[in-house]
Amino acid sequence: MKRAIIFDFDGVIADTADILFALSRDFDPTISEEDFAAHHDGNVYEEPRIKFTPEGAERLYNEYCDRLTISHVEAAIDPIKRLHTDYRLFIISSNEERGILSVLENAGIKDCFEAVYGYNTHKSKIIKFEMIRDKFNVVLEDSIFITDTLGDVREAKKLNIKTIAETFGFHNRERLEQGEPYAIVDTWDEIEEEIQRLK
Length: 199
Description:
There is one protein chain. The chain is α/β, with parallel strands linked by helices. Helices cover 46% and strands 13% of the residues. The chain has 9 helices and 6 strands; from the N terminus they run βααααβαβαβαβαβα. A 6-stranded parallel β-sheet has the order 3-2-1-4-5-6, sandwiched between helices.
């Protein structure tokens, strides 16, 4: 059976840091770049640095879906198509599934993924990892997780999942190093190279 690669969405497949920071500032203009970064140091629902009201969260999700376009995922399209040939692909996100599925469809890569689990499925990425394990017969210890945040690295580590952390998303190298991921990379080319090394 093909090995599984599990992707975070925002900051990895989609270049959405600017959208989400702007939407966070719309909710609370005092939010700084450090607040935004620290919000993703852990689970954004269990340990939020930015405390959205239910109404504020709903507004953010709706605006996010409206603003998300193919341009945000353009850099990931070819790498995803290449990886789909040899691996089973999944997405685990803390964001709204409706927007993710729509933009993947528009970009022609929705069918590359066996499942897309956002906050609608569960607010815990650990639970979503376990759902992929149980529903799709995935061996998590043999899987690879691609993310851009310290919080995700920490959650994956609890299940002994090898994580490749990249620096072109929400968190810089220094912050990612705190979670001691398997590798830290700077480009999609390097993501693919590290995946090949783990074959």
